[in-house]
Amino acid sequence: MVGDFKERVLRDLTLTQKYIVVLLGANDFRPVKGSLWLQKELFALSKMFDDLREESGFEAYFLGPHSEFVQDELVDLVQAGVVEKDRGQDRLTVLGKEIYKEISKGIKNEKVEAVSDIKDFLNDMTESELLGFVYFSYPEMRDESLKFKEVERKRRGIALSLLRRGKISVEKASEIAGISVERLIQESRRRGIQVYG
Q1: How many domains does the chain fold into?
Q2: Is 69 part of a structural domain of the chain?
Q3: What one-character-per-residue DSSP string does 34-102 give?
Q4: How many whole angstroms from its chain centre is CA 147?
Q5: CATH code of the domain containing 100
Q6: Looking at the domain assignment, is residue 91 inside a domain?
Q7: Which of 41, 57, 125, 154 is found 20 to 30 A from 16 (Cα to Cα)?
Q8: 104: domain range?
């Protein structure tokens, strides 16, 4: 009976739901920090994979890129017992982990690695770092944002924080901070951040 239910869930998964399951299964099933992170991590993946981009339909929204479709797909996964919310975090259930193992058998290693890399890169960012990275990397996605002005005021600190943590290059930090590479290097050195260039 349980096997039949698992097979039915597997058979009925949409492409986006499979991406959600693979994302939540990546990096030894480490949970995603919450809906904001899940949306941004899937958005980043949609920039890499055409099939996800076409199905997910991300648009500029109150906190940057958002997909109602992704939100609905996540709700369906929770209702099916594949995903659970735990203290704001999204994680796979026991059933979800079994489904992840089945799905991941049919996915190329490069795709699984890309999902793991995106999760590793974005999942431990603070909300300000996450929004700053997304807003200044994809400016078309900040048009509707309720927090852009707040993030913009902190952009230099966000860039330096991400640089200090080794998350981004000097060039990317310069783009996020809105200053030249030379100025960013000077400011980094003044703050004791090791940079090369």
Answers
A1: 1
A2: yes
A3: -HHHHHHHHHHHHHH-HHHHHHH--EEEBTEEE-HHHHHHHHHHHHTTSEEEETTEEEE-HHHHHHHHH
A4: 18
A5: 1.10.10
A6: yes
A7: 125
A8: 2-120
Query: Residue 16 is encoded by which pair of tokens?
Result: 């986006």
SS3 of 121, please? helix
Angle, nearest 10°, between helix axes 170-177 and 127-137? 90
Give the CA distances from residue 145 to residues 39, 120, 157, in Å, rounded to whole numbers and listed in that order.
14, 25, 20
Please state, as a whole number, how many other Cβ atoms lie within 10 Å of the Cβ of residue 150: 11
pLDDT per residue over 81-120, tens digit each?
A: 999 999 999 999 999 999 999 999 988 889 999 999 999 9
Question: How many other C-beta atoms lie within 10 A of the C-beta of residue 99?
Answer: 27
**Is residue 191 included in any domain, yes or no?**
no
Q: What angle in degrees, to the nearest 10, is found between the helix axes of 35-48 and 127-137?
A: 30
Q: Model confidence over 42-54: pLDDT tens digits?
A: 999 999 999 999 9
| 119 contact partners, CB below 8 Å, separation of at least 6 | 23, 26, 27, 30, 32, 41
Residues 122 and 30: their CA atoms lie apart, in Å, by 13
* Model pTM score: 0.93
Asked if residue 187 belongs to a domain, the reply is no
